[in-house]
Amino acid sequence: MKKHNYSAGPSILPQEVFEKASKAILNFNDSGLSILEISHRSKDFVAVMDEARSLALELLGLEGKGYQALFLQGGASTAFLMAPYNLMKENGKAAYLDSGTWATAAIKEAKYFGETVVVASSKEENYNHIPKGYTIPSDADYFHCTSNNTIFGTQMKDFPATNVPVVCDMSSDIFSRNLDFSKFDLIYAGAQKNMGPAGTTLVVVKEEILEKTGRTIPSMLDYAKHIKAESMYNTPPVFAVYVSLLTLQWIKAKGGVAAVQKLNDAKAELLYAEIDRNPLFKGAAAVEDRSIMNVTFLLNNADHTETFDGLWKAAGISGLPGHRSVGGYRASIYNAMPIESVQVLVDVMKALETKI
Ligand SMILES: Cc1ncc(COP(=O)(O)O)c(C=O)c1O
Q1: Residue 1 has pLDDT above 90, yes or no
Q2: Could you report the per-residue pLDDT of 192-208, keeping only the tens digit for each?
Q3: Which residues are the active-site residues?
Q4: In this predicted model, what pLDDT tens digit does every residue of 17-27 receive, in sequence order?
Q5: What distance in Å separates the CA atoms of residue 6 and residue 335, rounded to the nearest whole number?
Q6: 42 lines ligand 1 (CB under 6 A)
Q7: What atom of ligand 1 comes closest to residue 77's alpha carbon?
Q8: Neighbour count for residue 32 (Cβ, 10 Å)
Q9: Neighbours of 192 (CB within 10 A)
């Protein structure tokens, strides 16, 4: 039986993407060859890379606005160091918002490159909210934030107005909601949540902010080199890029990011309404910062854990336990999660009331 997959990542992708991807492993484009055995320089694969790059920009509304999309390797964790390498001047400084574990990891990498100012942090409250009311130094080389905190279930609803370039880790909410993406100068996202399998990282960068640091950057870490090579500086992760393209095509067929956001909002409302209604549960994140992608919640009485765990497992739900730093539960309801699966979870939460 197919499970209701609430895994935080790698995570659920559309069923039709899995089906098309499986077919391409056996016979890609009716070529008689697997996508896994053809050259990345072949006409068929170059077409995949080109379409994936242009569709990513199209879905974000960034076509023709001076941006480039790249599909790189090394995960978002490598982007943590590529951002300062490519943007922080020699003897320059960067500003960071510390909204969670991944933001902290990004800050750690930036410190290898130069002065790193943490403008605000919610660490003292175990990152249960997004810090607000901070000032970004106007002489920073860039400001870095994390749009969605996968572990804590918080999400930035507003982004600060600033004169410095804005860098955003969108790993866990890329393509899930409509924003004015032209406010960002560098966006990166590991594919393995809303876009594809693990193995590639989408980077969307405004070209004019590059090559201004005075640093000598090793080739594989240099965004400008990857742009010149059209995201083929070395052998790209061909299958991860192909599956990402299939997901982007699925998003487009659904009507684009705005249409997908409507579905995501409805799923999140359904689940948060039950968390707030049901006296057995409470939400883990501050209400105004609740994520529409990762819904974190706790049982009010830990004695009910065994009964609740038994109920959701019996209902075919998988991947629900929360991250160890929050405890409780985390329902990751990425783009591909159908509302019917969310209803199954809500029904299980209701059922718990009758079982205790
Ligand atoms: C918001 C965010 N940033 C960064 C990462 C790290 O990504 P990667 O494992 O691709 O390096 C994750 C992983 O879950 C994440 O959720």
Answers
A1: no
A2: 999 999 999 999 999 99
A3: 102, 169, 193
A4: 999 999 999 99
A5: 11
A6: no
A7: 11
A8: 8
A9: 24
Ligand 1 atom with the shortest distance to the CA of 74: 11
* Mutational pocket test of ligand 1: of 7, 72, 77, 144, the residue with most ligand atoms within 8 Å of the beta carbon: 77
**Residue located nearest, by CA, to atom 10 of ligand 1:** 75
Chain center to CA of 318: 20
CA distances from 32 to 44, 242, 309 (A): 12, 17, 46
- How crowded is residue 25: how many other Cβ atoms within 10 Å of its Cβ? 13
Using the mean position of ligand 1's atoms as its centre, give its distance from the Cα of residue 65 in Å: 27
Looking at this protein, which amino acid is placed at residue 228? K
How far apart are the CA of 106 and the centre of ligand 1, in A? Answer: 10
From the list 204, 202, 224, the residue with the least C-alpha distance to 212 is 224
Cα separation, 205 vs 212, whole angstroms: 14
Centroid of chain to Cα 345: 23
Mean of the pLDDT values across residues 217-229? 98
Report how far residue 235's alpha carbon sits from residue 229's, in angstroms, rounded to the nearest whole number.
Answer: 11
